[in-house]
């Protein structure tokens, strides 16, 4: 299995991913898929939606083996949250 190499800078990757999500993907998926993951090929615009990042990416790669994948959580600015929440003290 070969390792896929990124073909874009981090900035260009993010710009393309966000642009495709906002202009093409979001109108199709947002209403009934809040909280799910969408994996987008930033070169073709193809995408897959699933609860699982891995499942969405695997299905996208099955159709587009050389996909450059950008991941978005529908309805959120973040795919994941790192760190804990601060506790309220009495």
Description:
The protein is an alpha+beta fold and 90 residues long. The chain has one domain (10-73). It is built from two helices and three strands; from the N terminus they run αββαβ. It has a three-stranded antiparallel beta sheet. Strand 1 and strand 2 (47-50) form a beta hairpin. The longest helix is centred in the N-terminal third of the chain and has 20 residues, at 10-29. It is globular. 21% of the residues are buried.
Report the sheet with the most strands, covering strand number, pairing sense and barrel closure: 3 strands, antiparallel
For the secondary structure, the number of strands is: 3
What number is the mean pLDDT? Answer: 88
In spatial order, strands of the major sheet run 2-1-3
The helix-strand sequence is HEEHE
Beta-strand fraction estimate:
15-25%
Rounded to the nearest angstrom, the distance between the terminal CA atoms is 54 Å
Low-confidence stretches: none
Coarse morphology: globular
Percentage of residues assigned to helices: 25-40%
Number of domains: 1
Integer-rounded radius of gyration = 15 Å
């Amino acid at each position: 299995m070969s390792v896929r190499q990124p073909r874009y800078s981090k900035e260009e990757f993010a710009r393309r991913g966000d642009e495709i999500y906002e202009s093409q993907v979001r109108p199709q998926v947002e209403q009934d898929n809040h909280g799910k993951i969408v994996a987008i090929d930033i070169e073709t615009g193809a995408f897959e939606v699933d609860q699982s990042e891995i499942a969405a990416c695997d299905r996208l790669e099955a159709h587009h083996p050389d996909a450059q994948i950008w991941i978005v959580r529908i309805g959120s600015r973040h795919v994941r949250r790192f760190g804990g929440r601060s506790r309220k003290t009495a």
